[in-house]
Amino acid sequence: MSADSRERTRPDVVLRGGHVIDPKAGTSGVADVAIGGGRVLAIGTDLASDGAETVLDVTGRYVVPGIIDMHAHVFHTHRRSGLSLEPRVNTFSSGVTTVVDAGTSGWRDFVEFRTEVIERAEIRVLAYVNIVGSGMGGEWEHEAREMSPGLTAAMALEHRDVVVGIKTAHYWAKRPFDADHQPWTAVDRAVEAGERSGLPVMVDFYPWLPERPYPELILNRLRPGDIHTHVFAQQFPVIDERGKVYDHLFRARERGVIFDLGHGAASFWFRNAVPAVGQGFVPDSISTDLHTGNVNGPVVDMAATMSKLLNMGLSLEDVVARSTVAPAREIGRPELGTLDVGAEADIAVFAVDEGDFSFVDCGRTRLPGNRRLRCVLTMRAGKVVYNPQGLELPTWDRAVTPQQ
Ligand SMILES: [Zn+2]
Question: Which residues contact 305 (CB under 8 A, 6 or more apart)?
């Protein structure tokens, strides 16, 4: 080996002794992770002896790919709604390294979102473009003339480097209907934009009118790869009167429709979720729908949301998979959510605390549990961005104070 190549492979950081879970590789076990040049260099044993600049001891902790929150709202400079948070809020502190804005902006104001937020954020921000031109936050979300498949698809394709799909939300299909304004206008136009752009559609839906039954959405209107977010909201037929999961959910899953948690302020009912998960209907991906209306509860962050699924009986490996490799696949970014050698070093380290805990849903009920995920370190592209315990620091009494 030449001096040059030794130089290149010398790690900047080694995470030593943690339990590494990489769902894409199907691995779960104790290993070191070496990081250099912003990328994963190696996973194996005794990598700390390779002369790394920094060695962080994470023994007893879980080292996982950076978490992807595929449904949140981060267009905080948006003038018309107070919905969004700055993308730094409750993300790095929860192991999240990629946050996907779910259609806060539409085809009219996406460029503003890109220049004001996406390009300035330290965290990776990706986005769904709303089929509604002015995005979320007002009465215009019900106006059919605001929904343009052509303009939405064009905007998505022009910004394909950061756009992962098309979003429709908040369309109540209020009566009276006319030629333009129909029960399925928002969904159908979003799917048409998806067809034109070759991108998946994420749907937030209200089956309140008899013309808009939920099975019609997931069995006929959505395409394989399209995503129904908020799957465990109160308004969906998830559990029948005998306590069984409705067959339409399994049939929709068989035809390739994706179900995302999308916790939100009103969209995660334990009365739907716990029986469904117990019967094997688990959301494909776990996401928060984090915004100003739920950041202080009931959502809080991804770690809290993931902990809820953990305490419904999912394994830690499964919870991590549905928060990393699964959303990466759903948004068409298979290079994310993995610890592949050569991948950008987006990494989260969690402690799993044991004790008596309690978790809250959107239906004013709680779930008792005995395990809670707590993020102790987050790296974004190889850089430590969250380290509340000061993993590499000396204790205060051993610090050398520079001379004034
Ligand atoms: Zn949302």
Answer: 261, 263, 286, 287, 288, 299
Q: Which of 85, 124, 129 is nearest to 111 (CA)?
A: 129
Dist. CA 219 → ligand 1 center (Å)? 22
pLDDT of residue 179: 87
Phi then psi for residue 208, to 5 deg, are: -80, -25
* Residue 73 Cα to ligand 1 middle (Å): 6
User: DSSP letters of 345-377?
Assistant: --EEEEEEEEEEEEEE-TTS-EEEEEEEEEEEE
Distance 265 CA to ligand 1 centre (A): 9
Cα 72 to middle of ligand 1, angstroms:
6
Task: DSSP for 109-125, please give it.
Answer: THHHHHHHTGGG-SSEE
Determine the Cα–Cα distance for residues 105 and 124; give it in Å rounded to an integer: 17
**127-140 pLDDT, tens per residue?**
999 999 999 998 99
Average pLDDT over residues 16-40: 97
Please tell me the distance between residue 71's alpha carbon and the centre of ligand 1 in angstroms.
6
pLDDT in tens, 343-402: 999 999 999 999 999 999 999 999 999 999 999 999 999 999 999 999 999 999 999 888
Q: If we measure between CA atoms, which residue out of 379, 384, 382, 354 comes closest to residue 369?
A: 354
Ligand 1 centroid–CA 172 distance in Å is 15
* Residue 6 pLDDT: 43
Ligand 1 centre from 377 Cα, in Å? 27
| Rounded distance from Cα 67 to ligand 1 centre (Å) | 18
Q: What pLDDT sits at residue 3?
A: 42
DSSP for 222-278 reads SPTT-EEE-TTSTTS--B-TTSPBPHHHHHHHHTT-EEE---TTTS--HHHHHHHHH
* 110 has pLDDT over 70: yes
